[in-house]
Design goal:
Catalytic activity: L-arginyl-[protein] + NAD(+) = N(omega)-(ADP-D-ribosyl)-L-arginyl-[protein] + nicotinamide + H(+)
Distance between the termini: 103 Å
Largest sheet: 6 strands, mixed
Protein name: NAD(P)(+)--arginine ADP-ribosyltransferase
Family: Belongs to the Arg-specific ADP-ribosyltransferase family.
GO molecular function, one term: nucleotidyltransferase activity
Number of strands: 11
Shape: globular
Order of helices and strands: HEHHHHHHHEEEEHEEEEEEH
Structural class: alpha+beta
EC number: 2.4.2.31
Length: 305
């Protein structure tokens, strides 16, 4: 009888866990994520996308993406007729449309929204440059979303993120770095974050998250969008409720750069602490100029006037 009771208890617990649909996933550096930052190749990428018709091709091959993009394009067209927030230099229509696409959590439905499909592809569909070229079908969206966010000035702030259906497992050991490895929605409002789920819950200090409230389909969510490459430390974890406290390291790292025009995946994550990609590029140019001056002096190319 006792054996029967224990068996029934086990089966009931197993059934409850199975019915919740909650899965466990590690919280780590997500080395399989597609995290291209397009450093020093933005203009060339833009030219390639335009000349090859890549955006239109991807829209035609994926009707859900095409529908989401066209819907967002109409929304942005209407917003431009009214009051627009101040736009950063270099920010254009496709950047705004990409952000709108990402915030449309109800298209084509709540259960299978396009943003969730896109993030799944960002996290898991790319293992190398070859697989990016053949298996990743949102190249244009990833480019415009990434480079659009890069144009905004950011500062460190406290945000919150609630998740349904996933129990994230923290890394073992101390002083371990983690990334979300996707474009990560968060909110300055704890109550809003809880609406999206409490199977895992994050209190986050982000230094690269962008306030996209005025570019969202639902401004009431007070959304801050964290880029794929921001690096955090887990400073606290409570198993009860799978609650995390993440602190930005004020650093970012990426494995990919300019893959569409030939860049291969790096074997290690390439770190940067610059406030923007523009700053990274300018820093590299300063180093190159310094090397040029030194070499020129050695070769006697400069003369006293």
């Amino acid at each position: 009888m006792r054996c029967l009771i224990l068996t029934c208890t086990y089966l009931c617990l197993f059934s409850d866990l199975r019915n919740t649909g909650v899965v466990s996933e590690p919280l780590d550096m997500t080395p399989m994520a597609y995290d291209d930052q397009y450093i020093n190749c933005i203009k060339e990428m833009e030219k390639n996308i335009t000349s090859t018709g890549l955006l239109e091709e991807e829209k035609s091959k994926n009707k859900v993406f095409g529908g989401a993009w066209d819907k967002a394009a109409l929304e942005w067209k209407e917003r431009k007729k009214k009051h627009l927030p101040p736009l950063p230099r270099g920010f254009h229509d496709r950047h705004a449309i990409a952000i709108l696409v990402y915030t449309d959590k109800n298209y084509p439905s709540n259960d299978t929204s396009f943003p969730s499909r896109f993030n799944e592809a960002v996290r898991k569909s790319v293992t190398s440059r070859d697989s990016y070229m053949s298996n990743f079908h949102f190249k244009s969206l990833h480019f415009y979303l990434t480079t659009g966010l890069q144009l905004f000035k950011t500062s460190c702030r406290q945000v919150h993120r609630g998740i349904r259906g996933v129990h994230f497992v923290p890394p073992s050991g101390s002083d371990i770095s983690v990334r979300f490895g996707q474009f990560t929605s968060s909110s300055v409002s704890p109550a809003t974050a809880e609406i999206f789920g409490q199977d895992s819950y994050f209190n986050i200090t982000t230094c690269y998250g962008v306030d996209i409230e005025e570019f969202s389909y639902d401004p009431s969510e007070k959304e801050v969008l964290i880029p794929t490459n921001e690096v955090f430390k887990v400073t606290s974890f409570a198993k009860e409720g799978h609650q995390f406290v993440l602190e930005s390291t004020k650093r970012r790292c990426h494995y990919y750069n300019c893959a569409y025009i030939g860049g291969e995946k790096s074997q290690t994550c390439i770190y940067s602490s610059a406030s923007s990609v523009a700053a990274i590029s300018s820093t590299r140019h300063v180093h190159l100029f310094r090397e040029f001056v030194i070499n020129a002096a050695v070769l006697g190319l400069f003369v006293n006037l």
